[in-house]
Design a protein that fits this description.
The chain is an alpha+beta fold. It contains 5 helices and 7 strands; from the N terminus they run βαααβββαβαββ.
């Protein structure tokens, strides 16, 4: 069973470990070795966790940490599932939560970036209703690699569900 909870400052190392494990499994298949080596050397996962740990949502599978997500307004800045839990609905639960939070905050879409060569993740996002709006070079974090900007329209839950009756 998947449950979600807000992260605390005590979750920093847990967030780092999930991101690190997921990065290694996800990125090794398409990113140049020099990038993954730099990512490890610079502890990119630790940097992300240190900067924003308390803003993450933690997904747990039967009380075991299984995934993490950082939602900034309508932008899914980070979504990582531990390799042991990939394909079990953890990412879907986190995205559903992001959609709910964003809708309640008045946003009409969720957005995110994904490496163009990360076809597994792109397929997942497309299956969840995201569409590629544009592709761009990821100059800031991986020069020479392209990333996609994806958008998923959200349903407006604030509108009345009662039928509109026009008076003529």
């Amino acid at each position: 069973m998947i449950s979600l909870r807000p992260a605390t400052a005590d979750d920093e190392s847990l967030i780092r470990d999930i991101i690190h494990a997921s990065m290694l499994v996800s990125y090794v298949h398409f990113l140049p070795a020099k990038f993954t080596e730099k990512m490890l050397r610079n502890d990119r996962a630790g940097e992300i966790a240190r900067n924003d740990a308390v803003r993450f949502t933690i997904a747990e599978w039967n009380n075991t940490p299984a995934g993490v997500m950082l939602l900034k307004a309508d932008y899914v800045d980070h979504l990582w599932t531990h390799p042991d839990f990939m394909g079990k609905g953890v990412g879907s639960a986190l995205l559903d939560h992001a959609a709910h939070v964003a809708t309640q905050a008045g946003f009409h879409a969720l957005t995110l970036n994904c490496f163009e060569k990360n076809t597994h993740a792109l397929d997942f996002y497309k299956a969840k209703g995201f569409v590629i709006e544009k592709t761009f070079e990821a100059i800031d974090y991986c020069p020479g690699e392209n990333a996609c900007f994806l958008v998923r329209q959200l349903k407006d839950t604030t509108a009345s569900s009662e039928p509109f009756n026009a008076i003529c």
